[in-house]
Design a protein that fits this description.
The protein has no helices and 11 strands. With 115 residues, it is mostly beta strands. A hairpin with a 4-residue loop joins strand 7 and strand 8. It is globular, with a radius of gyration of 13 Å. The protein starts with a strand and ends with a strand.
């Protein structure tokens, strides 16, 4: 299983970014997918979840109304559209999936929001 995130970068507060997570080695369309983030000195936290068919999503309260998780099962890729970014959104963002009771993580992509 391999997960590769991309799309991070430096953005001003109020701006937008779209993260991608490309998956391989897994039956992507059968797996729920997750976005997590970890800010310096803080624990990794769950940002958003999307069900296997994309029909159900859930978000952390801190990102509700600003972030949108989605997926394209034909491309084995998940996305996180981040709008109205805040300084506190600065973190390394990771995608995750789970297979046979084991978690698989990507390498992460850095998102830095500046004032």
């Amino acid at each position: 299983v391999q997960l590769v995130e991309s799309g991070g970068g430096l953005v001003q507060a109020g701006g937008s970014l779209r993260l991608s997570c490309a998956a391989s080695g897994i039956n992507f369309s059968e797996r729920a997918m997750y976005w997590f983030r970890q800010a310096p000195g803080k624990q990794r936290e769950l940002v958003a979840i999307v069900s296997a068919d994309g029909g159900t999503t859930n978000y952390a309260d801190s990102v509700k109304g600003r972030f949108t998780i989605s997926r394209d099962n034909a491309k084995s890729t998940m996305y996180l559209q981040m709008n109205s970014l805040k300084l506190e959104d600065t973190a390394v963002y990771y995608c995750k999936t789970r297979r046979l009771a084991r978690d698989y993580w990507g390498q992460g992509t850095q998102v830095t929001v500046s004032s």
